[in-house]
Design a protein that fits this description.
The chain is of the alpha+beta class and 278 residues long. It has helices at 41-57, 111-124, 169-173, 178-188, 192-212, 215-236, 243-251, 255-264, 271-276; strands at residues 26-29, 32-35, 62-66, 70-71, 77-78, 82-86, 101-106, 128-133, 138-143, 148-151, 157-158, 167-168. It has 2 domains: 6-174, tt1808, chain A (Alpha-Beta Complex), CATH 3.90.1570; 190-276, no CATH class. It has 9 helices and 12 strands.
Length: 278
């Protein structure tokens, strides 16, 4: 199915102009009213993780929605499972702006039907459309050149201007922890809540240094803040810490090494692999 923009010689309706009643289980696709069934467990859980991942990874100036209707043409009005779109209102219409990324959670048998939706979204102007094949644990991106879905590398990531950091394919398809990916994204984005927590531990270390009244105390206070932040992240993720591993972190006096460990703490699979990253 190739991309055909010839149908867009006439102005398109706004993306938030409805053909179907919102909050119902119906969509309009090429003039047909289609019933959208509720999800089963694999689809539903993947949908929830997808939303969490996008919320954690979205870049400033963008917003995330699930099941939000998009008017793609005079005869189509349907909702991708998840989408990323500019948060600012449209400068001319005052309505919402068109999404830049769209995601569909699908079964293998439904890829062809979902491909028709992907083509319509691309014709409307959505920059990139993805499908997550739950049963085969794979992710695909719609290709205009091929007129079909293109498989994405399982060890790759989606890198896009609407995302603050690349989104791991392994996290999307469930072969890696979505929670770890969310934690890594929030740390990388310097989320205010985490920044305040890190600042609090750092301040505690600084106060310890001031109380000692020596330059050595100041330096040790900064190190103590790093150690406390590192232990807080590892314990918050539920990673088991052996006594010798905790002692190694507490005894570490190299600020550069502590900083490297702290940067990796959100994604390390085990404490052992983290401490090996020297």
């Amino acid at each position: 199915m190739s991309l055909d923009r010839s149908r867009h010689d006439e102005p398109l309706p706004p993306v938030d102009a409805r053909l179907v009643m919102p909050e119902t289980r119906y969509e309009a696709i090429e003039g047909r009213i289609v019933y959208v069934a509720p999800a089963d467990e694999p689809h539903g859980t993947c949908h929830a993780k997808l939303a969490a991942l996008l919320e954690a990874h979205v870049a400033p100036g963008y917003d995330v929605a699930v099941d939000m209707l998009t008017r793609t043409s005079e005869t189509s009005d349907f909702a991708p499972d998840a989408s990323v779109f500019p948060a600012a209102r449209h400068p001319e219409t005052g309505g919402r702006q068109l999404e830049e990324l769209a995601f569909e959670v699908v079964s293998t048998s439904a890829l062809n039907e979902t491909g028709s939706k992907a083509a319509r979204l691309r014709e409307r102007g959505v920059r990139r459309v993805f499908a997550i094949d739950v049963k085969r644990a794979r992710a695909l991106e719609w290709s205009d050149d091929l007129g079909t879905w293109q498989l994405l590398a399982p060890d790759g990531a989606i890198d896009d201007r609407s995302l603050a950091i690349p989104l791991s394919i392994a996290a999307l398809v469930g072969s890696a922890s979505a929670e770890d990916a969310v934690a890594h994204a929030l740390l990388a984005r310097r989320t205010p809540t985490l920044e305040r927590a890190l600042a609090k531990t750092h301040d505690a270390g600084r106060r310890q240094g001031h109380q000692e009244g020596h330059q050595e105390g100041h330096q040790e206070g900064a190190l103590a803040g790093r150690r406390a932040a590192l232990l807080a992240v590892l314990e918050g993720r539920g990673l088991a810490l052996e006594d010798r591993q905790r002692d190694a972190i507490i005894a570490e006096a190299d600020p550069g090494r502590l900083d490297r460990w702290l940067a990796l703490a959100g994604v390390a699979e085990t404490v052992a692999t983290l401490l090996d990253a020297r």
